[in-house]
């Protein structure tokens, strides 16, 4: 039996999810966005484009809401007449709770809250899924989970953990890119051309992540393995410690967590 997923909002994340699910057997994809160019760009992935929210919802079994948090209410308001108990709303909007989704959709269908991160755009995302709507049955819970597992790693979490997940993993790519930029600037300062410095640093991080993921060795031991006695690496580590870099990173993530709490009030 065919399942139809309709994505409302075909920006970076919505488009990435649609492309990641393209070609999946038994799954029809519908995209809805005011930008005709965004819909046209998804045609090669087999996405049927529509400009009308109600039409997209009417055609869909799973309604993926992939718009900014401030737009969710308007989108679900437009979708509400077409929602019924046979559909499920899946929202990837940060800070919009299950309770709010239920209220905005008029309680007409089950809702699922999802927090993605941007590596989903290359099929390497990490997703938190919240299945705390009591009206969600096991069949649709399994279906939604399997769809996101096709796009990366899935963690099923209680909603109370979502702000923490967002602060660590949802925001996390920005932390990584910020640190990468700093290393690139250091390489340029040391005389490497910018394009060469960027390639070096991207490969440095890719290789380090692969080592961490496959070696089975604790991160501290991997770091210590690079720090030869009286060498240049331990000199850099000592400078990091003098500047409390570790503590400042932790403080920054906790600041993201506190901001998430403020956004949900």
UniProtKB/TrEMBL annotation:
Organism lineage: Bacteria, Pseudomonadati, Thermodesulfobacteriota, Desulfovibrionia, Desulfovibrionales
Assigned protein family: Belongs to the pyrroline-5-carboxylate reductase family.
The Pyrroline-5-carboxylate reductase catalytic N-terminal domain, residue ranges: 5-95
UniProt KW Transcription keyword: no
Keywords: Amino-acid biosynthesis, Cytoplasm, NADP, Oxidoreductase, Proline biosynthesis
Enzyme class, first EC level, given as a word: oxidoreductase
Residue stretches making up the Pyrroline-5-carboxylate reductase dimerisation domain: 159-263
GO CC term, one of those recorded: cytoplasm
EC number: 1.5.1.2
Localization per Swiss-Prot or TrEMBL: Cytoplasm
Binding annotation for NADP(+): 8-13, 66-69
PANTHER family: PYRROLINE-5-CARBOXYLATE REDUCTASE, PYRROLINE-5-CARBOXYLATE REDUCTASE 3
NCBIfam families: proC
Catalytic reaction equation(s): L-proline + NAD(+) = (S)-1-pyrroline-5-carboxylate + NADH + 2 H(+); L-proline + NADP(+) = (S)-1-pyrroline-5-carboxylate + NADPH + 2 H(+)
Name of this protein: Pyrroline-5-carboxylate reductase
GO molecular function, one term: pyrroline-5-carboxylate reductase activity
Function: Catalyzes the reduction of 1-pyrroline-5-carboxylate (PCA) to L-proline.
Domain of life: Bacteria
Organism of provenance: Nitratidesulfovibrio vulgaris (strain DP4)
């Amino acid at each position: 039996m065919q399942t139809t997923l309709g994505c409302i909002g075909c920006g970076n994340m919505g488009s990435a999810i649609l492309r990641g699910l393209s070609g999946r057997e038994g799954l029809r994809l519908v995209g809805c966005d005011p930008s005709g160019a965004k819909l046209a760009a998804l045609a090669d992935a087999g996405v049927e484009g529509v400009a009308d929210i109600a039409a997209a919802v009417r055609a869909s079994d799973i309604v993926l809401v992939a718009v900014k948090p401030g737009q969710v209410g308007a989108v679900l308001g437009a979708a509400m007449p077409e929602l019924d108990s046979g559909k499920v709303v899946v929202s990837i909007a940060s800070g919009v709770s299950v309770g709010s989704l239920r209220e905005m959709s008029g309680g007409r269908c089950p809702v699922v809250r999802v927090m993605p991160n941007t590596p989903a755009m290359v099929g390497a995302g990490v997703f938190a899924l919240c299945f705390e709507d009591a009206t969600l049955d096991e069949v649709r819970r399994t279906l939604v989970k399997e769809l996101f597992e096709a796009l990366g790693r899935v963690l099923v979490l209680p909603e109370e953990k979502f702000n923490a997940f967002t602060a660590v993993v949802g925001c996390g790519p920005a932390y990584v890119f910020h640190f990468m930029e700093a290393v690139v600037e250091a390489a340029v300062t040391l005389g490497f051309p910018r394009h060469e410095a960027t390639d070096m640093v991207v490969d440095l991080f890719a290789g380090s992540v692969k080592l961490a993921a496959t070696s089975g060795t604790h991160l501290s031991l991997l770091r210590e393995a690079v720090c030869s006695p009286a060498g240049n690496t331990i000199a850099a580590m000592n400078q990091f410690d003098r500047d409390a870099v570790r503590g400042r990173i932790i403080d920054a993530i906790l600041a993201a967590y506190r901001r998430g709490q403020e956004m949900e009030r």
